[in-house]
Specification:
The structure is a single chain. The protein is an alpha/beta fold. The chain folds into 2 domains: 133 residues, Rossmann fold (3-Layer(aba) Sandwich), CATH 3.40.50; 123 residues, Rossmann fold. Helix content is 37%, strand content 14%. It has 12 helices and 13 strands. It has a 5-stranded parallel sheet with strand order 5-4-3-6-7, with helices on both faces. The protein has a 4-stranded parallel sheet with strand order 10-8-12-13, with helices on both faces. The protein has a two-stranded antiparallel ribbon with strand order 1-2. Helix 2 links the parallel strand 4 and strand 5. The chain starts with 5 loop residues before the first strand and ends with a helix. The N terminus is likely disordered.
Length: 277
């Protein structure tokens, strides 16, 4: 019997890792549908990829492994009927990425749901540990151990000064990341000071407000909004230290938003970008 409980909290009324009573699966799941791209990658890294029978069209990693896995729609628009046809004994979802309606429909159909709600790097680590336990992952330590070591190293490092950092996740209008988001904690753990940290969720900010923030580093991710080289000129035109010091960087959005095996490398890369000369 799998003894790792899925704790039922008040988010969606489903399984989240926060508070409340729990229930346990009777055995390790054999037919898993993942609705979260980064956790699909994690399941393969854990050594249980052969049990993944369904994925979203955005679950593209690892590319050599997911090609033969059935697609069940997108992260927000899941084909619930297709998921049920696959007869899963576990569906993996995350509050921030998946639509409440889809997850509730699957739960109502009696499908066990693993629903994570990570708002910090520590939350993400706990989520990975719980998922690894539930699926009885043979390679859990190989995946999670390096992340824990990098995370603890960065926590101990405590930079003398944290550069003011702006990370937009959208354009038209620009949207930053507030203090209750996973990206905020990634910035802070990596050594930066999120200039939108006084806000919650995803605040809309104008170019004038960005100038008022006076960010020393700007990171432009390629997801969810696909910032590209064409957007650099708009930020270099602003009167901000990041422009004067040539510290406006295009980055892979997965560095900021993906949980799983790439977290250790992501934190290392971000800490290097946020280290002032």
């Amino acid at each position: 019997m799998v003894t790792h409980a899925l704790r039922v909290g008040n988010t969606f009324g489903l399984a989240v890792f926060r508070a409340g009573a729990g229930y346990a699966l009777r055995m390790a799941p054999r037919r898993i549908v993942s609705l979260v791209p980064s956790l699909t990658e994690a399941l393969f890294a854990f050594g249980v990829g052969e049990r993944v029978v369904g994925r979203t069209r955005y679950c593209t990693q690892p590319p050599r492994c997911v090609g033969g896995v059935e697609k069940v729609g997108g992260t927000k628009k899941v084909d619930v009927g297709r998921v049920l046809d696959l007869e899963p004994d576990l569906v993996v979802a995350v509050r921030e990425e998946n639509a409440r309606e889809s997850v509730e429909a699957l739960r109502a159909a009696g499908v066990p749901i693993f629903l994570g709600a990570p708002e910090t790097v520590a939350d993400a680590l706990e989520m990975l540990e719980k998922l690894a336990g539930i699926v009885e992952a043979p390679r859990a330590e190989a995946v999670i151990g390096p992340i824990e070591r990098v995370y603890e190293g960065l926590r101990r490092a405590r930079p003398v000064r944290r550069p003011r950092t702006f990370v937009p996740i959208w354009k038209g209008p620009y949207m930053g990341v507030g203090s209750d988001t996973y990206v905020h904690d990634v910035i802070e753990v990596s050594g930066g000071e999120n200039v939108c940290g006084a806000h919650t969720r995803y605040p809309i900010v104008s170019p004038e407000e960005i100038e008022a923030f006076q960010p020393e580093v700007v990171l432009l991710p390629d997801e969810p909004y696909p910032f590209s080289a064409e957007d650099l000129a708009e930020f270099y035109a602003l009167d901000i230290p990041a422009a004067h010091g040539d510290r406006i960087h295009l980055v892979d959005g997965k560095l900021l938003t993906w949980y799983g095996p790439r977290m250790a490398g992501s934190l290392r890369q971000l800490s290097a970008l946020l280290r002032l000369p």
